Amino acid sequence: MASKTDPARRTCIAGVGQSEYTKWGGIQDRSQFQVTAEAILGALADAGIKPADVDGLTSFSNDSNDAPLMQVALGMPRLRLSGMVWGGGGGGTCGAISMACASIEAGHADVVVAYRGLCQGQGRRFGLFGQGRVNGNFVDPFGLFAPSQMLSLAVRRFMHLYPITEDHLCEIGLNARANANRNPLAVMHGRPLTRDQYLASRWIAEPLRLYDCCLETDGAAAVVITTRERARDLPSTPVDILAAAHGSGPGWGSGLLSGHNMPDDDYASTNGKYLAKELFAHAGLDPKDIDVAQIYDHFSGLVLMALEDYGFCAAGESGEFVASGAIRWPDGRLPLNTSGGQLSEAYVHGMNLVIEGVRQIRGTSTSQVADARTCLVTGGLGVSPTSAVILGRH
Amino acid sequence: MAYFPDSMPRPAPTMDDAGFWAACSERKLRFQACADCGQPRHPPTPICPACHSTKMKWIDAPARAEVFTFNVIHHASHPAVAARLPYVGALITFPDLPGVRLVSNVTDCAPSLVRIGMQVELWWDDIGDGMFVPRFRPAKGDAS
After folding, report:
1. CB atoms within 10 A of CB A288
2. How far is B75 from chain A (nearest CA, A)?
3. Looking at per-residue confidence, does A9 or B142 come out higher?
4. A149 and B CB contact within 8 Å
5. pLDDT of A8-57, one tens digit each?
6. What pLDDT was estimated at residue A3?
7. How crowded is residue A20: how many other Cβ atoms within 10 Å of its Cβ?
8. Distance, CA of B10 to CA of B4 (rounded, Å)
9. B69 and B135 share one domain
10. Angle at A240 between CA A236 and CA A241, to 5 degrees
11. Hey, which bits of chain A come out as E strands?
């Protein structure tokens, strides 16, 4: 089943923008809000669209850079969509895009910027305890304070159910670092990583080591979404949104971040298998049609689960899949996280992965997949909602 | 003496989960269940997801408990846990009460000996001011 969207309202990403990416605490000369506004202006300049033409703003994971204030900062005369995707853990990365697409397709907005600003040096470091977590009463008193300490429970179960080893987790980390070393804007550029270094790195929460866990960084990223019809007259290189979706299976609630109360069959999963079916159906594509992928890499083990949930391999076979070299640039079947991802480029709650997806379709990645025509990008995994988009060329 | 020092974050009961913590303060591990259709649920939520009744009851957790999955935490994300490193986080299930999982700890056992499927038993950690937190240790007779 291909898309039934009015052809005149089909959407694309017309421009992308990002700040510098630094280790947490690296951006001290201006506020997170300013950094975010600059990333948005950069995305609009890339698109060739004036800020005054933007009529929608979306974000996710309780982004503290409020859309109403952003409207003022950008001098937007009208705000027609002020959208926040509920839920934490970066689950709504691509949800901010799917909400923009829904509004644009329905004619409620014409130009929407989906953005995320996250300077952990100015707010809370995600690796430390923070008050106010949803259902925090059911993790805090037990010493599970940070996502690594919550999601590693599911990674352990996954490794118990299936033949997944530390070498398979390691491969996710090494692949990300190899790609980051081709990306001069990556925080970990110039810092190669070997298997020996990986195995010698300290435990964070077994079975996760330091290099299984995403970075804590400062930065912001934004993408401009509009109709393909409008983008036709722009000087930029638009990338089509072939499908975008966010959502959850039953019973996830606070998911792996606290409740751990999803159905048994969903336990060691990303919560993505429901929306993956819809996503591929909407795009009229199969997993085998995807040329390159940016899969949300907060933790290595969840990336393996996603390879299964999105149908790139069967349940339990993701270890074998990555061990075969399938995710390596340039010759693998599915080059993965080609900017270095959140393990080695930056942790902008996944919005940096969307930008890398756009670069792949434009042909401008530093780990460019030859003639990439389709790219899957996912939002945060193991949470509710989770989300994904398929980018491409029509 | 409590398992973690006094600076450890404590449960801060809300209107929706107060019943769980009230039972804990009496050293009773009780899960919420629907008073109409009987379906258990955790964490607490005010409406039955199955039949939408707002009538609830609190049912005793069965004694038989096991480790559904676990981790070994080596990084102090709060100063209160620094002296306890490494400690074991665990997801506990109850074979006689399907549909409920509880995040807790496995104590009194070397982390390297904890395993999925391990039989564990409840103990109550006195964290002061009349509150107790449910933690688990290997059940007597468990192979490990």
Report:
1. 9
2. 5
3. A9
4. yes
5. 899 999 999 999 999 999 999 999 999 999 999 999 999 999 999 999 99
6. 55
7. 15
8. 10
9. yes
10. 130
11. 11-18, 22-23, 56-60, 81-85, 111-119, 203-206, 208-209, 217-227, 239-247, 292-294, 374-378, 386-392
Q: Which domain holds residue B21?
A: 11-60
Average pLDDT over residues B87-93: 98
**CB A141 to CB B77 under 8 A?**
no
The conformational region for residue B15 under phi > 0 = left, psi -120 to 50 = alpha, else beta, is alpha
Residue from the list B43, B69, B104 with its beta carbon closest to the beta carbon of A156: B69
| Residue A296 annotated to the active site | yes
Same-domain check for residues B73 and B143? yes
Q: What value of ipTM does the predicted structure carry?
A: 0.98
Do B69 and B125 have their domain in common? yes
pTM score over 0.90: yes
Whether B116 sits inside 8 A of A157 (CB atoms) is yes
From chain B, the residues in CB contact with A148 under 8 A are 75
Per domain, the residue ranges of chain A are 7-125+214-392
Residues B70 and B51 in one domain: no
Spell out the alpha helix ranges (H) of A181-272: 195-200, 228-231
> Using the beta-carbon criterion (under 8 Å), do B17 and A137 form an inter-chain contact?
yes
Two tokens, residue A363: 């042909």
Mutate to test the interface with A, among B73, B102, B116 (most CBs of A within 10 A): B73
A347 part of the active site: yes
Distance from CA of A129 to the nearest CA of B (A): 6
- The amino acid at B108: D
Give the closest-approach CA distance of B104 to chain A in angstroms: 6
- State the smallest CA–CA distance between residue B44 and chain A in angstroms: 9
> What pLDDT, on a 0 to 100 scale, did the predictor assign at position A1?
40
- List the end-to-end C-alpha distance of chain B, in Å, as a whole number: 26
- The verdict on residue B2 lying in a domain is no
CA B132 vs CA A140, A256, B33, B58: distances in Å: 14, 24, 21, 17
> Quick check: B123 contacting A, CB < 8 Å?
no
Q: What is the pLDDT of residues A83-130, one digit of tens each?
A: 999 998 899 999 999 999 999 999 999 999 999 999 999 998 999 998
pLDDT value at A246 more than 60? yes
CB–CB of B43 and A138 under 8 A? yes
User: Both B81 and B143 in a single domain?
Assistant: yes
Chain B CB within 8 Å of residue A132 CB? no
Which of A149, A207, A251 lies at the smallest CB-CB distance from B77?
A: A149
Do residues B50 and B96 both lie within one domain? no
Indicate the CATH number of A7-125+214-392 among 3.40.50.300, 3.30.990.10, 3.60.15.10, 3.40.47.10: 3.40.47.10
From chain B, the residues in CB contact with A262 under 8 A are none
